[in-house]
Amino acid sequence: MSSHEQQAQTLVEALPYIQKFTGKTLVVKYGGSAMLSDDLRRAVMSDIVLLSLVGIRVVVVHGGGPEISAMLKRLGHESRFVDGLRYTDEVTMEVVQAVLCGKVNKDLVSQLGRLGGEAVGLCGMDGRLFQAERLDEKYGLVGRITGVNPKPVENALLSGYIPVVSTVAQGVDADTAYNINADTAAAKLAEALKAEKLILLTDVRGLLRNPGDEGTLIHVLRTGDVPELVEQGVISGGMIPKMEGCVEAIHGGVEKVHILDGRIPHSILIELLSDRGIGTMLER
Q1: Regarding predicted confidence, which is higher, 276 or 70?
Q2: What stretches of the chain adopt beta strand conformation (E)?
């Protein structure tokens, strides 16, 4: 097949998927390696612009762990983790808010703009988008989401914008902001928006039956299989809260969740608009 034929074939293959998803809402959680490499970041952002231009309502939820660690280091403040969550004291919380709601959020908004998208930045405190209470004293100012008000995001989507959301929440139990796990926040927001799909970009191929062997990728997973896989240790460590959030999102009305390798350029387009899935898809 010539390269022209191949290109045509790719576009023809994408058409039914575009027809299926146009007008539907898609939440993309963006983080990990895909944030650190300029090339990968550009690929992810251009995927999001393309999806938006074909009429898919895309919402981006982002973290920014490496940038937060770098800024804390610059300030001579040590990063500390408890059970995989960043211990967040008051100084750390100030940095989290400044870096996530400020620098990282606006960098993503401007990059989407340069690539031809119309984006607007929101943080969890805008319009009480995320409300939270303290998760546990041992994590410091880390919150557990108690409420989501999707209105600011819905209004942005209605106006044709790509909402870019940073995961800092407004405290309901104290006069403070809380640091929120981005995977959990994306799942809760997808649920509140009744999104068609939630896509989590990670640094792994998807869910592997044998963590050391990429050939053991689980392509399709049902929500009922999750407890057993946790018991077998297939889902372990930081993947447990990730998967629990995904299962909750599906029970809350999200159609499907995709766990994708953010290190593969254009993994979102390949997963959504072609016949070959490349990550793990979770469904009811």
Answers
A1: 70
A2: 25-30, 57-62, 81-82, 85-86, 119-123, 130-134, 143-148, 162-166, 168-171, 177-179, 197-202, 220-222, 256-261, 280-283
